Amino acid sequence: MASSPDPQADPRVNTRTPQSPGRLTREPNLAFRQLRGARSPGEFAAAVRRAAREIGEQVACDARYIGRVENGEIRCPNYAYERVFRYMFPGLTLADLGFSARETVRGRGARPASGTASLLHLTPRPTEPPPHDSSHQHHQNHEESDVLRRAFMTGSTATVAAVSLGLGPATAHATQRVGEAEVSAVEDAVRRIRLLDDRHGADGLYQRAAQPLRTAYALLDASASRPSTQERLHTGAGELAISVGWLAHDSGRFGEAQSHYAEALATSRLAGDPGLEAHAFCNMSFLARDMGRPREAMRAAQAGERAALALGSPRLLSLLALREAGGWAGLGDRSACEESLTRAHAHFARGAADADPEWMSFFVEAELEMLQAQCWSALGDWSRAARHAHRAAALQDPHFARNLALYRAELADDLARAGAPAESAAAGQAVLDLLSQVQSTRIQAMLADTSRILAPHRASPEVAAFLERRSAVAV
């Protein structure tokens, strides 16, 4: 297991309290909290990710990470985060940001010199360059994912080995205790799947993500050290099941996706976790719509809304209302669809909240427009659908190639059906430009449908060029 931090190394850590003798407590990082201002943790995390991209860094920052900084759990950020924070707040030192000096954070082993594969072995994590000052060899950074690296990369103990990617669930059954390292590793797997899917699509990820999911559920059979750890493990395993289910869903493996979503729903019920339940129903609704079961999609969304009512997240209710609208659209009920869309807009307008689940980071205005486009498309109002799809593509962060390709594919299809073949072909060409970065069966299928619709218009030079290029890519 990961070694405990030295409480004497940081003056901000009190070793004992009268209420709980012997238990470590940390002083909140009030300076960092002040810098966040009125933004929610999720909004601030998104700003951190944008800043990182601007300077060529890659950080998987989310609301949970921001919370860990603010409650003092992360006493000093890793070098990548330090560079991002210094870029965001020029002139401020680590101390100004509320962090401890790096040299006071002790008990951390040196980072391996070469790149180490991530938990999922999907892509290597960027590694720090060798420090110029040899003293850094003895005072490495307190990274927010230190326990993850120990648990899933170095494999230094029996417990660590039990949760490594290369070993199966049977080994995990031999683990006698499950603690912070294992739970954090499961949570990190969820984040990395989402990040990689956002950037590259599902097709190349699904098979490699299945083993960590099996391991996570095997860990549920081992005894957790504390009830709170067990609760986090249930939630983490359920969220991992949804993430793997989405990879199956987006790559056209609907039956497997259905199984993973059902597993997550069962886990949510066992754990009494309404947030996980709402997430499972949200994805089940989306899947049912894609499977041509609009009534099931509508009912799953409504069940998700009931689960989400007490969570305090208007944005979650907005997304579920959009899922319900998609079900009504599939049933051809325009009035019910419009009523659901009205509710979705009302919830969305209330803005972000601290209670927004971290998995909802994708649900920004661009996604709101995209889901509306799908509703109008299902209702046969192609011109209106195309207007929403165009706004979705225009609003989408270009760094997330998968969603940008999806939105443009929707636009190409809607324009083709609306009787604008040249414009459709131009949008289709923009999708093809992204396929070197994105692997998604869903997007390929959408382009195939658009190509069939455009085939009678091959006399148009724009259409002919798109069809020829798309045919070459499909082969």
Task: Explain how this protein is built.
InterPro entries: TPR-like_helical_dom_sf. Residues 1-26, 108-144 are annotated as: Disordered. It comes from Streptomyces xanthochromogenes. With 475 residues, this protein is mainly α. It folds into four domains: 1-99, no CATH class; 179-272, no CATH class; 294-356; 365-371 and 379-475, no CATH class. Helices cover 60% and strands 2% of the residues. The chain is globular and about 70 Å long. It starts with 12 loop residues before the first strand and ends with a helix.
Q: Low-confidence runs (pLDDT<50, min 5 residues)?
A: 1-24, 106-176
How many domains make up the 3D coordinates?
4
Spatial shape: globular
In what order do the strands lie side by side in the largest sheet? 1-2
Biggest beta sheet summary: 2 strands, antiparallel
Q: What is the H-and-E element order?
A: EEHHHHHHHEHHEHHHHHHHHHHHH
Gap from first CA to last CA: 49 Å
Strand content: under 5%
Based on helices, strands and strand pairing, what is the structural class? mainly alpha
Binned, the helix content reads 55-70%
Radius of gyration: 24 Å
- Please give the count of helices: 21
Integer average pLDDT: 77
Q: How many strand segments?
A: 4
